# Entry
Amino acid sequence: MSTGQDLYKKAKTLIPGGTMLLSKRPELYLPDLWPAYFSKAKGCKVWDLDGKELIDMSIMGIGTNTLGYGNDEVDAAVLETVIRGNMSTLNCPEEVYLAEKLIDINPWADMVRFARSGGEANSIAIRIARAASGRDKVAICGYHGWHDWYLSANHNGGDDLSGHLLPGLSPSGVPKNLKDTVYPFHYNNYEELLSIVTNNDIGVIKMEVIRNFGPEDNFLKKVRDLATSKNIVLIFDECTSGFRETFGGIYKKYGVEPDMAMFGKTIGNGYALTAVVGKRSVMEAAQNTFISSTFWTERIGPTAALATLNVMERIKSWDIITSVGKKMQLGWQKIADESKVAIEISGIPALSTYSFKSDNAMIYKTYVTQEMLKKGFLASTDFYACTEHTDDKFEIYFNALNEVFATIAKCERGNHSVDSLLDGPVCHSRFKRLN
Ligand code: PMP
# Structure
């Protein structure tokens, strides 16, 4: 057993659920065999606790590091902050510079609040929007974090959030009197949203602008018009989509502006910083309620974000990662076509994913991860692009993946036993309690 798996076994006795983020649970990749922990990360390479070097062709820190791990320019700015002092009784000026920069990027917005996680930014936005609208009820579409306000949707009558990224989220511990405060609607289903808004006193609509598929039939514009006509605060959650197709929100591609938007993940290239931007008329409501936290004032987050935005703007990182993602999607499709294995690709290029169209899909997915790990890759069926995913990495990745698909093709044709593929258990596909 690897040093990482040994440590993970201990972790599960000390940390309920093993890790702080569901998406970093080893069981989601390769139960009992995933390296689990890193000792070093640079560019798109990660070293495990046994010093094994791996090329990360998977989720790149769950999409945080579009400029690669340990980007030199961002790290230099952060190190300067460490030397000069990260914390003090006074505030750091970088938060004001960053607020100005974010308003430049989002000209419809006038004010900004900062936090350190996407879930926090979402909770802040909901609090402000409820305060501004004077109404409690919220319509949502997408994943917006772990907080009570969001998970309470699963009190309404089952697994209402299952169509919104993560199935099986249990609202245990979330007060039941929050039932019927959050109403999920499906992407591109305007009639459903209209019915929710007509039948409930909705004050806020919060949505991801795009996840796996784009808007159809003027969907975003219709949502905008509905929100405007009913005096509803419209919030775009760009925690994941932001800075992957434009210098800012992906909303810019569709010409529809929200009243508030959240950014996270990419904005600090791995350092913690999330932002809520919004119109003055909405954001000023933050003064009528209490939103305040110690570590929202530390200096590394805004320092890293300013440096990251500089690099992104200079090299147009969103163009680079979009073409990197397209390369990946084309490569997957080519390998699948040549080996005659049916797959379905989805996602914007910079956040690409595929699934096997087979009853054995989860076994094949696990097998890909298992075999690619043996060949020196962190790989799954998800790929989050970064600027360090250069052609040389792709060449060896596709050569390796070709061999893996060849075996899967044999299984699909009945010339190879599916049961003999895996060295350990099949990967988990959803949130569940760990043993
Ligand atoms: N909103 C969206 C759209 C997200 O994708 C995520 C994270 N996957 C979050 C919010 C929550 O962010 P965090 O995990 O930093 O709390």
